[in-house]
Amino acid sequence: MQDSPVTRTPEPGRARSPRPLARLTRLARWAARRRRAALGLALRGACHGAGTAAAGLVALWLQHRFR
User: Fold this and answer.
1) What is the DSSP string of the chain?
2) Percent of the chain at pLDDT above 70?
3) Contacts of 23 (CB under 8 A, 6+ apart)
4) Is the pTM value of this prediction over 0.85?
């Protein structure tokens, strides 16, 4: 009885996936999308932090100004 192509085990030293480069490319694209999203969120957080700091400094200045 011959093994079918689906159940046949690969030869030693050969990759299991017939297209490992395609899988690597997909993984790289997925990582790039997540990296862009993470950088966007980091920039948004930095802007919120800068705005909060500016508002706090203005409030502090007003408190000292009108004492």
Assistant:
1) -PPPTTTPPPPTTS-SSS-HHHHHHHHHHHHHHHHHHHHHHHHHHHHHHHHHHHHHHHHHHHHHHT-
2) 73
3) 17
4) no
